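We now fix the convention by which a protein and its fold are recorded. The integers have meaning only within a learned vocabulary of local backbone shapes. A complete example follows; check for yourself that the lines match position by position.
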Amino acid sequence: MKRKIAVAAALASVLTAAACSSSSTAGSSKQATLSTDGKGKTINVWLMQDAQKGWPGVVDAAKKQFTAETGANVNIQWQTWTNYSTKLDTALLSGNAPDALELGNTQTAKYIAANSFVDLTSVKDKFDNSSSWLDSLAASGQSADHTKTYAIPYYAGARIMIYRKDLFAAAGVTTPPTTLDELTADLTKVKAANSKVPNFSALYLPGKNWYTAVSFGAGTYGVNNVIAKSDGSKFTGTLTDPTFIQGIQTWDTLQKNFSSGGTTVDETTQDALMAKGNIAAIIGNGWEVGSVTDPKTGDPSLASKLGTIAVPGTTAGQPTPAFLGGSDLAVPTHAANPGLGAEFLRIFTNTAQQTALAKFAIPNNKTLLPTYEAVSDVNKAAGAAANGKTWFIPNSQFWSQASDEVALQTAFSAIAAGGDPTAALTTAQTTIIGDLNGG
């Protein structure tokens, strides 16, 4: 762990030095401006190929509007997620950063801590629908204490419940559950109706799927400060808060009563397993419907038999909080044209562009969720999840997939196998807080 902390701290230090201009105070980021003075200029923007393949028309419309309003041209440089962090680090360190860029919302904290992005707080209200940005997607672009905004929400993804409508109907369940109590009652019926099916799971909950497990804890604890909270200088843990533990016990009860096996595995194989026919429901991303029914790796005959809903919560209409993955947009501190870069992001995320984007992905704000939900039943479920309470990992450059996520996987695997929730989460919390505080 200490080696990982040392490497992260060193990178943050180097990036900070590269990001701070000669006229700025050391350790602070430039304040944003929005510029329309672009005659004769060309800005460089890094976007992922997801947009190139999925919604190129949105990008083209934003480029056209930007050029009309500023006189500047836009050079889109399409990126892939593979080794993207390394490429971005290199660009920032060499002073060759683009004028605006996209990055995954779990990557953002490192660059915020290193003062690598322009502080957009002062112009946030100039961005359409900023008052209704998706809670957790917006949080991913903020400082650790959530007082400043350095990255703009772009689009999101949310986990939902994917279930076999035919198996539920055969068990006498024809109306989707709207609360956890109803879900438990329905799963009990589905389990009983399939008691002779080997290794049957009415709801498959693999022990290492920490995203789903934490969601149940967030349902009683609250959206903010899930896993850990910061006062601006130090993190303290919330995994052992009694209300969080209460939610985890709900997850544990569902796992033990309705999930067969899987206590030591994660969710990566659940789509293929569901396609085999002995799983009635899973919790996963909306795109996993296509994976379950894939002709090569799944069972296409299930296409008409799958239903989707937001994971029910304790109260009808209030789903269990979902983790929001997705992308953010930012302006590097040493961009050649930071004002124009910020202006492009403003246009790229305006109501017109986000309305068009909503046909393909969850938009960055709650105002436009109905447009997204109208496209399909899967979108309706994911939109309901995104519109409810959501959560995100702690905003820290020291959050580690190799350390902190493994600590959570280990804890929930132990709980699923019969371990004490408080003891397992105490161990995980010790690792996580040690990391987050740079220890």
